[in-house]
UniProtKB/TrEMBL annotation:
It is a peripheral membrane protein; Multi-pass membrane protein. Pfam families: Ank (PF00023), Ank_2 (PF12796), PGG (PF13962). Residues 8-27 have a biased composition (Polar residues). One of its GO terms (cellular component) is plasma membrane. It comes from Vigna unguiculata. It is found in: Cell membrane; Membrane. It comes from the Eukaryota. Residues 462-571 form the PGG domain. Keywords: ANK repeat, Membrane, Repeat, Transmembrane, Transmembrane helix. This is Ankyrin. The keyword Nucleotide-binding does not apply. SUPFAM superfamilies: Ankyrin repeat (SSF48403). Its main location: membrane.
Length: 602
């Protein structure tokens, strides 16, 4: 048997090509290993390999040597031990005994292979991975140490002035990953410790994806791994993709402890001013996340980062105002009050951002607590002040514009200069809101009667509102009835009695969801029509609530038609599939344009 294997191995070695040109386009030159030898390497059976000469010739089609094969293996073998305690316990409990055991990587087998073929440790596979890469990726710390110790006996690299083991550990695969990259990526702390102890003076650089080991540790939230790198390497590389750093990754993850550990290192501490491709430093991201602790931590490291601008000219203060983080706005201004004067590429200060994003609370707090009246009069490149984003002067009034997918909850409407002055000189925020409401109501009432009738009367006259209420009530009634009388009926007997027959069908689930939406939206619209007269008498508020009710009604109508079409399909299935399709097509070509036209007029 051994002779047959040796003959097959020699034949494989004989057809192995000498140059890449000879292998191109040829399937006859694919390297391979005899199955017996392959499984011997997988299980760590050195006896099957002891008589094989030139072990380096045993490679798979992907150029994996027997060391690569063994280091990626976890095989299962029969134990052959029936007198073990676990066997007796399983037998007593009436369970079928497990007579197999998982056999992992054998350091003894690796040592025997290295003793027989010393150069095998340096051979990479088709991905450029040495056995050390595989050991690091799979967390085989003992094998990793054994491989490095074995390479120490090799001649040093005189040209680069490093020992053979350092050159071996710094070797990269096709993705420019070192063994340390692999160990960090998979959070194998013991392998990381061994590699860093044996080569503590090397600053591991970025791979093809621009990832350094420290960045990978920070991104993966591997605090112990990051601490090992920081404690062993004096000046570790900290770069990451998109010109970000390990500190960027910690801040984006809102990992406060990781950020603290990174900032303890004097070299990594420089990353606090490092800007990514968008021009944003870690402080920009801490503010965007609304994390006050990280914001204060970063501001303590460097005084200039609060003044740094991204590609759009935005400082951290602009971002804090836009995202509504009042505590962060207050923190930055109290530390660096003059940074509030910085404007972006459009000439807008941070109050412009607060207004444009509807952060009324921040605007009022700035006015009351920070005394920055002069900023309210600063104009951007378009000539607009913060309270004057379009033209004329504006005051706040609440309006919802979800249909147009705007995140702004507060918008602005025209007011006179006198009204605006009265609004800004009022200190109490509640009084400001009341005054703004009064002025907005006045502006609404000042419209010419004929214009008001044209724009509002068609949709929100008394008769129209009664019609809308009637439609909403009918939709709610029909949806309620459809929900009670389920399509297909219910099971009459058995274990699942009174449950829907078609409960497992996807079409039934769609029906339930759309019918429920129709019911809820129609009910909401009806409630708005009923209680609006009791809530307010302000014309603009009535107008707004009627708009909202109409939108709910139209969407309820749409959901009801979808429920009808899906229920028809669920009951009749393929026999009348055309009816459902025609209904949906009609819905698209008729209801959707009507809905858009209605929304455009509102």
């Amino acid at each position: 048997m051994v002779e047959e294997i040796m003959e097959a191995t020699n034949q494989v070695a004989a057809v192995s090509p000498a140059s890449p040109q000879e292998t191109e386009g040829s399937n006859n030159n694919i390297t391979r290993i005899h199955p017996t030898l392959y499984f011997a390497a997988l299980k760590g059976n050195f006896q099957e390999l002891i008589q094989v000469q030139n072990l380096e010739t045993l490679v798979t089609p992907n150029k994996n040597t027997i060391l690569h094969i063994h280091l990626t293996s976890t095989t299962t073998q029969k134990t052959g031990i029936r007198s073990s305690a676990s066997f007796l316990l399983q037998t007593i409990q009436g369970k079928r005994p497990d007579l197999t055991v998982k056999v992992g990587v054998s350091e003894e087998f690796v040592g025997q292979i290295l003793e027989k073929c010393r150069g095998l440790v340096l051979l990479p596979n088709a991905k450029g991975e040495t056995p050390l890469h595989i050991a690091a990726k799979n967390g085989h710390s003992g094998v990793a140490k054994l491989l490095v110790e074995h390479v120490k006996a090799f001649p040093p690299d005189i040209e680069h002035g490093v020992g053979a083991e350092q050159k071996f550990m710094r070797a990269t695969n096709n993705e420019k990953d070192t063994a340390l990259h692999e160990a960090v990526r998979y959070n194998h702390i013991q392998v990381v410790k061994i590699l860093l102890e044996m080569d503590p003076h090397y600053s591991y650089h970025a791979n093809k994806a621009d990832e350094t080991p420290l960045y990978l540790a920070s991104k993966g939230r591997y605090q112990k791994v990051a601490c090992e790198i920081l404690s062993n390497i004096k000046s570790p590389a900290y770069e990451g993709p998109n010109n970000q750093t390990a500190l960027h990754a910690a801040v984006i993850n809102q990992d406060i402890e990781m950020a603290r550990e990174l900032l303890k290192n004097e070299y990594v501490k420089l990353a606090v001013k490092h800007a990514d491709k968008e021009g944003r430093n870690p402080l920009h991201y801490a503010v965007k996340k609304g994390n006050k602790v990280l914001t204060e931590l970063l501001l303590e490291q460097n005084t200039s980062i609060a003044y740094m601008q991204d590609k759009n000219g935005m400082t951290a203060l602009h971002i804090a105002a836009a995202y509504g983080s009042w505590q962060i706005v207050e923190t930055i201004i109290k530390r660096y009050p003059d940074c509030s004067e910085i404007v972006d590429n459009k000439g807008q200060n941070f109050i412009h951002y607060a207004v444009n994003k509807g952060r009324l609370f921040i605007v009022i707090r700035i006015k009351r607590n920070l005394s920055m009246d002069h900023l309210f009069n600063e104009k951007d490149v378009y000539g607009n002040t913060p309270l004057h984003p379009q033209s004329g002067f504006l005051i706040f009034f609440p309006i919802i514009s979800a249909l147009r997918r705007r995140a702004i909850v507060l918008k602005l409407a025209y007011a006179s200069r006198e009204d605006l002055n009265a609004l800004l000189t009022t200190q109490d925020p509640i009084e400001q809101l009341k005054l703004g409401e009064e002025k907005q109501n006045e502006q609404f009432d000042k419209k010419p009667k004929n214009e008001l009738e044209k724009s509002v009367g068609r949709f929100f006259t008394k008769e129209a509102k009664e019609t809308h209420l009637l439609v909403a009530t009918l939709i709610a009634t029909v949806s309620f009835a459809a929900g009670i009388t389920l399509p297909g009926g219910t099971i009459q007997d058995g274990e699942h009695k009174s449950t829907p027959i078609m409960r497992d069908k996807a079409s039934f689930i769609v029906f339930t969801v759309s019918n429920t939406l129709a019911m809820l939206l129609a009910t909401a619209a009806a409630h708005i029509h009923l209680f609006t007269p009791l809530i307010t008498k302000a014309n603009w508020k009535v107008h707004f609530l009627c708009e909202l009710a109409l939108r709910f009604t139209l969407r309820a109508l749409l959901a009801m038609i979808v429920a009808f079409a899906v229920a028809t399909y669920a009951v009749l299935e393929s026999s009348l599939l055309g009816i459902a399709l025609v209904t949906l097509v009609s819905l698209y070509f008729f209801m959707v344009p009507c809905l858009k036209a209605s929304m455009a007029r509102i």
